[in-house]
Amino acid sequence: MTIPYRPFGRTGVQVSALALGAMNFGARGNPDHEDGVRVIHRALDAGINIVDTADVYSQGESEVIVGKALADRRDDVFLATKFHGRMGDDVNRFGNSRRWIHRAVEDSLRRLGTDHIDLYQVHRPEEDTDFDETLGALTDLVRQGKVRYLGTSTFPPSRIVEGQWIAERRGRERVVAEQPPYSILARGVEAEVLPVAQRYGLAVIPWSPLAGGWLTGRYRAGGPQPESSRAARQPGRFEIGGAENAAKLEAVEALAVLAEQSGLTLIELALGFVLAHPAVTAPIIGPRTLEQLESQLGAADRPLPADVLDEIDKIVPPGTTLSSQDAGYAPPSLREPTIRRRPLG
Ligand SMILES: NC(=O)c1ccc[n+]([C@@H]2O[C@H](COP(=O)([O-])OP(=O)(O)OC[C@H]3O[C@@H](n4cnc5c(N)ncnc54)[C@H](OP(=O)(O)O)[C@@H]3O)[C@@H](O)[C@H]2O)c1
Q: Does pTM surpass 0.85?
């Protein structure tokens, strides 16, 4: 198994075609720190060189575990984290303001045990904070050497474009990457986000490529409700019998048959699909255990043939998100199934 490397947008940095997400390390997933470190080391040994976390993942615990794992390996890893989510009761301990960003970055650097973050991402846009305020604060962090590159996550296309224009017109650092939700079951970003990212040369590192677990084979029609800490946190998104999930379940059944006919696991089919989009740099996988990591690593060197991609398009049409709970955000235009996911020809 070999994980190929891809350019990270137009930065000149090369990253592995799979990124390791650390959301599951800590109280909300796997509370065993040593086990988390083992999973991270195995991913790095397999060739993964980009790790994604966030301050809010288990309220800083994920960053602490990543920091432990990278203690002797920091220089070989492209380290990404995020700010925006609430980090305490105080009215200002969250958001995209200059005031919070300067505090949040110090907290993340301390927890990660490093003096710089390679990619510092705005976890979500915020309507009542001027984006120029946010980009101005982030530009200062780049100039101070605390941050190398800027990214966004789950930004609608208009906000992505706005960020590029602010950078150009006001001399701010440019956002170089977007982290959107994207999987076979959540294809809304094919409509505008992915084409916009391509137009501006942004790296794209999608989250939840297995739709949070729906594309692992554990969710099957007539089967039991799978055990998952996620179901407790977001019951609507993971309840197998929920009305909003009926279309997902139907698609999963068809995809399982397609995977078997294609000699792939459902996980390989799902990750291969995200990897195949020309705008995508590296899907962020989110294993909770070593076994889950092993089940995903092989996907990086099993590209899906065109006929398999065509069959997927018949099961979930391009541009379609089957449940708004998987969309992260759901402006109506993103759910219109009008845009092909691959260029013609
Ligand atoms: N920017 C954002 O807003 C945002 C949002 C979400 C995630 N992310 C990033 O994206 C990363 C990946 O997201 P994700 O965790 O939602 O990804 P995902 O790959 O869609 O889902 C991962 C889940 O799939 C299940 N799974 C994986 N392998 C399995 C296997 N072999 N057998 C059975 N179940 C398996 C596990 O569920 P169980 O834990 O239930 O076993 C695991 O937690 C995160 O770590 C984070 O870095 C970012």
A: yes
